[in-house]
Amino acid sequence: MSRLYLVRKNLELYLGPMDIMEFKEGYKKLKFGPDAEICSSLKKWVKLSDHQRLASRYPQIASIVSRAAIWEQSMAPVQIRDDHAIRSHFPRKQSSFFFYGISFLIIALVIIGVWGYKEGIFSFSHKKINTQVVTQLLSQKKEVEFLKYMESHIAVIVPDASKHKTSYTEWIPYIRYYAYKKGGSVVGMKPQLLRGAVPSTLAPQDCSMEGLRSKLGEELQTDWKAILHGSETPSTIFQKMFFWDPYWIKIRVDPSWIQPINYYQACLIELSQVIKQDQFIIPTDVKPILEARVDHLLSTISPKQQGFRFESIKPKVVPTNILGALSCIEEDGDSEVCIPKDSLAVPATKYLAVRKQRMDIFSMLSSIVIKEAILSEELSELYTLRANIKPIDQITQFNYSSEYQLITYMQHTSGSIKDSKKMMEQSSPEINLK
Predict the structure, then answer these.
(1) Which of 9, 72, 96, 303 is 20 to 30 A (C-alpha) from 205?
(2) Could you tell me which residue, 300 or 14, shows the higher pLDDT?
(3) 172-198 pLDDT, tens per residue?
(4) Phi, psi of 14 (to 5 degrees)
């Protein structure tokens, strides 16, 4: 087996291992010169320019070097000017080590910085941007200034909130406020982060104008006449939005929302904008019905009527379709007027009867909570209504278990509204009883 060699250049670059022929080829092609060093096995390094030692330890290598033209050139005398005499290889090596040391330090600092930022240890944006400013602006009702502040800092806020849980919790109420003033979306933030924990079975996954527009094109052109007549049950989440219960929505509070009060109201705001645009071909006799329903839902959920309160409004128009009937019921109209049995299919009238009974429960609970008193007859009637109606709505899938639980607490506390409210606040903090 032929001997193998290592070649070292400038004390820091190693070439090989290589056999005698590879060395000859490399030397011929000037891959290394007389200043390089060579060694084999455990022997000491020898400079190629040290011909005496090279000949004694590596005669074959010395023979190649001595015959090469580059060797002859290196042996020729070189005149060096006095002002350049101070130059040597040592400073070059020293500067090389210095360069690599600085490079390594910079890379290490960058790695540490990126890691710290991802872990939330470093948050450079928080030095200048914080929620105190936006909180103060909103408390002073300076919405225009708030939106300008968010607009100028959103490019920093969103990436930070998307990566860090603490930052997300801190900023998401303000991001949502800003987003639903701008069409329901923010560049760089995924729809599910804006939506939060709302199940996709109850509301669309993306309630931005673009998200709704992309899905509603076909939805709004379906056979709405069959749905309005009640002969066909709404099957998609977008059709079901028109059947939402505004009172179920308005009493469900979420501290991570400021305005809108929750994701459901946000969806309705964007839905209202989408259906009023003329880019969808909606039958002329259907469009006003859909618009009126969404307008009713939004006005009922209005911040002016927040909380567990119910205002009875005598309906002015006798409904002729299921959506009109729902709005009538939610305005506390007479069931004989609100449920037109002659113009609706039987399944629709049955569904409306259940919604009417559920509204009766809500109306009674609202009155009891406000006056903080309940008669034994009222409690008995509430208990009977609750027993006859399932807690989950047939179409919207809204769950009324929390409202039903309040009735149970009233029963367990012998009609003590104060104690029932305390128990309710502990078991269902998302319900606003004020």
Answers:
(1) 303
(2) 300
(3) 999 999 999 999 999 999 999 999 999
(4) -110, 135
Q: Are strands 37-39 and 5-9 parallel, antiparallel or unpaired?
A: antiparallel
**Half-sphere exposure at residue 294, Cβ-oriented, CA atoms within 13 angstroms:** 22
Q: Write out 159-197 in H/E/C secondary structure.
A: HHHHHCHHHHHHHHHHHHHHHCCCCCCCCCCCHHHHHCC
> What amino acid is encoded at 105 in this protein?
L
Name the residue type at position 370. I
Q: What percent of the chain has pLDDT over 90?
A: 41
Separation CA 298–CA 207 (nearest Å): 15
> ∠ at Cα 275 (273, 280), nearest 5°?
125
* 227 lies in the same domain as 253: yes
Residue 122 pLDDT? 47
The CATH number for 72's domain is: 3.30.1490
Would you call the peptide bond into 204 cis, given omega within 30 degrees of 0 as the criterion?
Answer: no
The reply to whether 130 falls in a domain is no
pLDDT at 46: 85
139 contacts: CB under 8 Å, gap ≥ 6: none
Taking the C-alpha atoms of residue 130 and residue 150, their distance in angstroms, rounded to an integer, is 11
Q: For residue 389, give the amino acid letter.
A: I
* Residue that terminates a domain, selected from 52, 78, 104: 78
* pLDDT computed for residue 221 by the predictor: 66
> Model confidence over 165-175: pLDDT tens digits?
999 999 999 99
